UniProtKB/TrEMBL annotation:
Domain Carboxyltransferase: 1-192
Official protein name in the record: Allophanate hydrolase subunit 1
Keywords: ATP-binding, Hydrolase, Nucleotide-binding
Organism: Amycolatopsis acidiphila
Domain of life from the UniProt record: Bacteria
GO molecular function, one term: ATP binding
Length: 205
């Protein structure tokens, strides 16, 4: 674990891997609920980092972190979000070839996996979901598309992502959903936040 001050009120914690991020995030949430976490306005997990922002004394927290007991555990999940998905993505056949299975088996693998939001980034409402079986990674497209449609469901590395709005992107597209991922009239605006459990449900076109 390595800590770095970010400005006057934030602390960035660098960790060894995704599991360590989940463990620290879970411990932070436990302490927040118990009322033992120092004042903190926002906690933002990343691939290998956790940012704590709005701290009164980030130096003191950096010092205290060295004495925290952080058990191995999953980050607390929010309510399950089901994502109705039409599996007709332009790259579905390519993913099937890469995984050496049929497109129906790709769909069964994706819908049968337990997905969870690891962290958010790239664009407002874009969540990086873990949960694909070991070995089911997918390389990004060699040339990104100039425009990926809103609601496109894609795979990249070990993650699943859903594009909240049309934007350039290099993920392998396997399907699409009509769910609204980002709505400023909703609290929170993002439908998928860190820790959220997600299940993809196949629906007809």
């Amino acid at each position: 674990m390595r800590t770095m001050l970010v400005g006057a009120r934030a602390l960035l914690v660098e960790l060894d891997d995704r599991t360590a991020v989940d463990d620290l995030y879970a411990e932070i949430e436990r302490r927040r609920v118990a009322g033992t976490l120092p004042r903190c306005e926002e906690v933002v997990p990343g691939a290998r980092t956790v940012l704590l922002d709005g701290l009164t004394d980030p130096v003191a927290l950096a010092r205290d972190l060295t004495s925290w007991h952080i058990p191995r555990t999953e980050a607390p999940a929010t309510a399950l979000v089901e994502v109705p998905t039409v599996y007709d993505g332009a790259d579905l056949a390519e993913v099937a070839r890469y995984w050496e299975m049929t497109t129906r088996e790709v769909i069964a693998t994706h819908t049968g996996s337990r997905h969870r939001v690891a962290f958010c980034g790239f664009a407002p409402g874009f969540a990086y979901l873990t949960g694909l079986p070991p070995g089911r990674t997918v390389r990004r497209r060699p040339a990104p598309r100039s425009a990926v449609p809103t609601g496109a469901v894609g795979l990249a590395d070990q993650y699943t992502g859903i594009y909240p709005r049309s934007s350039p992107g290099g993920w392998q597209l396997i399907g699409r959903t009509d769910l609204s991922l980002w709505d400023t009239g909703r609290v929170p605006a993002a439908l998928l936040t860190p820790g959220t459990e997600v299940r993809f449900v196949e629906v007809p076109a």
